[in-house]
């Protein structure tokens, strides 16, 4: 099973730019399926980016984040080759983690 | 309103003039001339939208509207079809139960060939689309065919389109009366009004690209298939050419045909042929 | 099949109802409001608030003042309300969090980001907007709250592309 997380982390001297795309339905719990049954809320609540033992960026999400969420940010203090650990947990207790090398 | 209809009239007559200029055989209406048709079709769009770069038409509504183009470019930084593309690549490389793969069914192992589809199969006497060829490949190898409108088919065609990105569409019409008839039939379907709203494909995508229908900006017909398959935000997912035709029909309150029915195959043949020379841009992302 | 699915569905609805009552009950307990920036806990309460003011209060416990140092970038007309690219940058110092509120959504708080020291104060993401709405970005900097607001027009999808 391929990872649900796609990351691009590129170092540009002092600054590392990070883009991540995560495969997740992000169901709001307000939508009905074709049979008329409510699709229960199912969404990522927390997404963490950790580098060199430190949380550099933490996202707290509600149901208004789009399906297959995307986020982009930049941080200082990392260099090419460093590991960036990305993990998420959702409201049903599911989670996924991946580690990307900063390019 | 007055200006707008005047503009519309103006562009229509310009199109007619262009058609007359580029097609000396316009009077011989019974003569099928795809070369002249393609030239007239392209010139119509090039003259109607002189500020749009030719290769940009394959980006659909984004070639027509700057604000939307910006939103699209932001999306393209990490495009929503990325997962389908990866899935397609993996599926393409995974052998069937009999050990063969998709690559065994296609010229050049299926890589970089999207621009040659659909083609006219002279043995069968019909148009064969990429989606059809993929399912035939599955069936020939003892696998169940995929739904033409759903995810697996879109993933496979996304991967195949990706390997052809930037290559000019290159559809051939062999010197075979059946091929010419298929082209003509597709053209007829494209320009025929149907459904409760009495729209033809051309009403929206030739007469009114760049204008809004309700909230959305209409895509030009020129190069519209070069971007397939597409991730449509409206669908929250991927869709194939078949899916696009079916939804277009149902949104204009017409009765959609069966995916890969002869007429849809012929429309695809017509629309792809008149986009010859424009680059493959699929997989695409659309509102 | 159809005869059995009726009661089952009802039962599920009742269960759901019971669950939300239980959640509401918890919400009413005198817990201290979880401030997003103060710790790493997921701000459950703030995400449950329907309107923007209540969500800001639950998240930060105070109000924000408008600032031209918060640059909020969003389209004027969203091509699709389900996927609206939105981003914030700021020239403010000592930024510890950035949050987005979509006032017309069923729950106003959309996303809240904790910005560590050394992380550039800015974020781009994609949000859902139920209809034409005010979008508010709040930047927490040096213990104070600053905001920027923009209106985004959202229209339902139909035929296009």
- Percent of residues of chain A in helical segments? under 10%
CATH topology of the domain at 44-154 in chain C: Immunoglobulin-like
Strand content of chain C: 25-35%
Whole-number total of structural domains of chain A: 1
Total count of strands of chain A: 7
What number is the mean pLDDT of chain A? 94
CATH fold label of chain A: Immunoglobulin-like
Low-confidence sequence ranges of chain A: none
Summarize the topology:
The complex is a heterotrimer of chains A (103), B (287) and C (161).
Chain A: E1 5-12, E2 15-22, E3 44-51, E4 54-61, E5 70-76, E6 83-90, E7 95-101
Antiparallel strand pairs in A: 1-2, 2-5, 3-4, 3-6, 6-7
Chain B: H1 2-22, H2 34-48, H3 66-76, H4 82-93, E1 119-121, E2 126-128, H5 130-140, H6 151-162, H7 177-191, H8 201-205, E3 212-213, E4 216-217, E5 230-232, E6 237-239, H9 241-251, H10 262-273, E7 284-286
Helix pairs in contact in B: 1-2, 4-6, 7-10
Chain C: H1 2-28, H2 44-48, H3 52-60, E1 65-66, E2 70-73, E3 84-90, E4 95-102, E5 109-115, E6 122-127, E7 133-141, E8 144-152
Parallel strand pairs in C: 1-8
Antiparallel strand pairs in C: 2-3, 3-6, 4-5, 4-7, 7-8
Structure description:
The complex is a heterotrimer of chains A (103), B (287) and C (161). With 103 residues, chain A is mainly beta. Chain A has a single domain, classed as Immunoglobulins (Immunoglobulin-like). Chain A has strands at residues 5-12, 15-22, 44-51, 54-61, 70-76, 83-90, 95-101. In chain A, strands 4-3-6-7 form a four-stranded antiparallel beta sheet, with no helix packed on it. A three-stranded antiparallel beta sheet of chain A has the order 1-2-5, with no helix packed on it. In chain A, strand 1 and strand 2 (15-22) form a beta hairpin. The radius of gyration of chain A is 15 Å and the shape is elongated. The two termini of chain A are 24 Å apart. In chain B, the strands form three sheets. In chain B, strands 6-5-7 form a three-stranded mixed beta sheet. Chain B has a two-stranded antiparallel ribbon with strand order 1-2. A two-stranded antiparallel sheet of chain B has the order 3-4. Chain B has a single domain (36-287), classed as Cytochrome Bc1 Complex, Chain D, domain 2, CATH 1.10.760.10. In chain B, helix 1 packs antiparallel against helix 2 (34-48) and helix 4 (82-93) packs across helix 6. Chain B contains ten helices and seven strands. Chain B is mainly alpha-helical and 287 residues long. With 161 residues, chain C is α+β, with helices and mostly antiparallel strands. Chain C has a domain at 44-154: SoxY domain (Immunoglobulin-like), CATH 2.60.40.2470. Chain C is built from three helices and eight strands; from the N terminus they run H-H-H-E-E-E-E-E-E-E-E. In chain C, strand 7 and strand 8 form a beta hairpin. Residues 1-38 and 157-161 of chain C have low confidence and may be disordered. Chains in contact: A-B, A-C, B-C. The A-C interface holds A 15, 28, 30, 37, 45-46, 54-67, 69-77 and C 9, 36, 40, 42-43, 47, 82-84, 87, 102, 105-107, 109-116, 118-120, 122-129.
């Amino acid at each position: 099973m391929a990872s649900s997380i796609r990351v691009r982390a590129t170092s540009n001297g002092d600054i590392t730019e990070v883009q991540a795309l995560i495969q997740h339905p992000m169901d709001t719990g307000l939508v009905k399926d074709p049979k008329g049954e409510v699709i229960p809320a199912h969404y990522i609540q927390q997404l963490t980016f950790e580098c060199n033992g430190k949380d550099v960026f933490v996202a707290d999400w509600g149901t208004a984040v789009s399906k297959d969420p995307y986020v982009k940010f930049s941080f200082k203090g990392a260099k090419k080759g460093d590991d960036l650990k990305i993990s998420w947990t959702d409201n049903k207790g599911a989670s996924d983690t991946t580690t990307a090398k900063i390019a | 309103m007055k200006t707008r209809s005047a503009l519309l009239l103006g562009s229509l007559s310009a199109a007619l003039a262009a058609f007359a200029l580029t097609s000396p055989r316009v009077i011989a209406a019974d003569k099928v001339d795809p070369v002249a048709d393609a030239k007239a079709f392209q010139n119509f769009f090039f003259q109607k939208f002189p500020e749009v770069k030719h290769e940009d038409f394959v980006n659909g509504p984004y070639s027509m509207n700057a604000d939307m183009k910006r939103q699209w470019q932001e999306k393209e930084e990490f495009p929503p079809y990325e997962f389908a593309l990866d899935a397609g690549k993996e599926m393409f490389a995974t052998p069937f139960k009999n050990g063969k793969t998709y690559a065994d069914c296609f010229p050049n192992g299926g890589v970089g060939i999207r621009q040659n589809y659909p083609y006219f199969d002279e043995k069968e006497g019909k148009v064969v689309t990429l989606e059809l060829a993929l399912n035939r490949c599955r069936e020939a190898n003892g696998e169940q065919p995929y739904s033409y409108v759903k995810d697996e088919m879109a993933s496979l065609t996304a991967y195949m389109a990706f390997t052809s990105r930037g290559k000019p569409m290159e559809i051939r019409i062999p010197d075979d009366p059946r091929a010419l008839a298929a082209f003509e039939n597709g053209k007829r379907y494209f320009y025929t009004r149907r459904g409760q709203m009495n729209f033809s494909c051309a009403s929206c995508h030739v007469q009114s690209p760049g204008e809004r229908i309700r909230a959305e900006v209409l895509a030009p017909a020129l190069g519209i298939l070069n971007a397939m398959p597409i991730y449509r935000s409206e669908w929250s997912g991927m869709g194939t050419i078949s899916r696009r035709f079916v939804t277009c029909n149902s949104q204009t309150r017409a009765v959609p045909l069966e995916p890969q029915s002869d007429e849809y195959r012929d429309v695809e043949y017509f629309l792809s042929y008149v986009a010859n020379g424009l680059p493959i841009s699929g997989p695409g992302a659309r509102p | 099949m159809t005869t059995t699915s009726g009661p089952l569905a009802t039962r599920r609805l009742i269960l759901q109802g019971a669950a939300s009552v239980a959640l509401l009950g918890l919400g009413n307990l005198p817990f201290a409001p979880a401030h997003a920036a103060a710790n790493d806990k997921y701000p459950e309460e703030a995400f449950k608030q329907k309107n923007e003011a209540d969500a800001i209060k639950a998240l930060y416990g105070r109000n924000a003042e408008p600032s031209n140092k918060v640059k909020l970038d969003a389209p004027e007309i969203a091509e699709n309300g389900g996927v609206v690219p939105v981003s914030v940058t700021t020239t403010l110092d000592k930024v510890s969090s950035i949050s987005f509120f979509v006032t017309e959504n069923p729950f106003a708080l959309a996303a809240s980001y904790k910005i560590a020291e050394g992380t550039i104060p800015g974020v781009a993401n994609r949000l859902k907007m139920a209809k034409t709405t005010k979008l508010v970005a709040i930047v927490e900097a040096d213990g104070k709250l600053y905001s920027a607001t923009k209106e985004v027009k959202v229209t339902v999808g139909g035929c296009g592309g």
